[in-house]
Amino acid sequence: MPPRITPLAIATGILFLLTACVSDNSRTSGSAADHAWWKETIVYQLYPRSFKDSDGDGIGDLKGIISKLDYIKSLGVDAVWLNPIYASPNDDNGYDISDYRNIMKDFGTMADFDTLLKEMHARHIRLIMDLVVNHTSDEHSWFQQSRSSRNSPYRNYYHWWNAERGKPTPRWSFFDVNSDAWKYDSATNAYYLHYFSRKQPDLNWENPQVRKEVYDIMKFWLDKGIDGFRMDAFQFVAKDTTWPTFPPGYDKNIIKYYGMGPHLHDYLQEMNKEVIGKYDIMTVAEGAGSTLDDAMSLVDPARHELNMAYHFEGMDVGSHDSAYDLLDFKRVYTKWDSAFAQKGWVSIFLGNHDQPRMLSHWASDEPQYRDAASKMLNTFILTMRGTPYCYYGDELGMSNIKFDNIHDYRDIATINKYLELKHNGGDTAAFIQSQKRSSRDNGRTPFQWDATPNAGFTTGTPWLKVNPNYTTLNQQAQAQEPSSILNYFKKLTQLRHTTPALTYGAYTLIDPSNPNVYAYTRQYENKTYLILLNFKSHPSPIFLPTSIDLTTATPVLSNYPTHPPTTTLQPYEALIYDLTPTNP
Length: 584
Ligand code: NOJ
What we know:
By secondary structure, this protein is of the alpha/beta class. The chain is 31% helix and 15% strand. The strands form five sheets. The protein has an eight-stranded parallel β-sheet with strand order 11-10-9-5-2-1-13-12. Strands 14-15-16-20-18 form a five-stranded antiparallel β-sheet. Helix 14 packs parallel to helix 18 (485-498) and helix 15 (412-423) runs antiparallel to helix 16. It is globular. The structure holds 1-deoxynojirimycin (NOJ).
């Protein structure tokens, strides 16, 4: 895709000349301050099923996305990460792929895809695709052949355990109704492994033929011109196939026992040599192992593996308890920033398709706070170091739908856990209550375009109910309101693009023991910015070091019309100041 000349690009270009520093994608350089387009990129993650339906079948599709590209462009984002759009029977909404070289029927055709990519590039928007290769669908032809006979040439594409050997060593499964990752298959009297659902058998990466298939698939899409991959569940691809017994309780720390298995780095280095290194692309791993060293081993530029990873430690703060401790939250983000301050790179996000809505989770979706709280959380994402990932609808302040009834849920994770509980006589009512806070379906409801029926998402029956608050909370209404969450979001993306310090600047935590306010500076070259974020619904004082004098600082952006002349932040207030001294 042709390079885009942004103010930040101009600023950084001048810097290159001054420092004679040469770096385009920094694959060979080591420092976190080395420039790269994927560090300057703001990613907009879009759940295709729920973005825009063009044909009235109730399911979002590629033509729908094409019709909204001008909107996406207007947000000031640089890339779109699309959740899987490949052919799939949709056991797990596209994360179960039956044909990697075809488009899911619900979403359209390959011709629609080609148009989408062309139209995105025409608008200087990059496209990042999901690469789901820890597992396929059980309806993929590889698996169909693999399960048909022990002698199939595809047998070794998956992990099989012949039943005459007895039961395999237990492995826990995320979505199985019995939490059992080994499924007995009578066709060949053997068990196959599935870390996710029964319809998502795990590929055997020890088989070089499997790896070659994956590299060919990657090249197929890269040769079409896509700009990168988000690598689904990638930390799990390498397994210890001696199947050791894990200690009791291992299922409580799945990443430690299942993640970063033997040969993972060999595979990634091979992939880099065969594919990644031949293209100027962005690569991001879902998951980053269970330690900072694990994470660094994936993204250290000297190792030639991936550009960045996203970790779950931030998401796990408080474990979906709305009363999480902000001190923990600050500790986690500060720890991760420090670990990557010199080299490597991370992603910053507060929500995605596997999480509830960030507003409901990290702040408050009560009507009186929605506006300030959404703006505050977006300020966090767009002022931290790391590539920001903004999830569709968070630019409007979309919130959890909080279904009361299991029949409203569509997510296999919720449905199978409910069935398992019911089968075992567990407390299903308490479970439904907890799902209102944590179910992934909360974050997957259709985009709220306008106040017409079904929020303008579809003329049919939406595959997942639309949040009833769409009559007042929608894109059209916010586009017309200058002080809306949407218009604030656009100011933030513009600020990030024109302020190199927000991308590359060093991060320093201020007032660390403040339990209510997250404050930090971003410093780069001769510029310093101060970010103050009140994460609470009550006024909260901030204690600044004497070196910071707000009376001489220049306010840059705020989510309230005015700020009283005090050092107390209003509920969910966000303030950005430029601390750079003006000419005396
Ligand atoms: C992680 C994806 O983000 C999630 O949605 C999916 O269910 C699992 N991987 C399995 O592919």
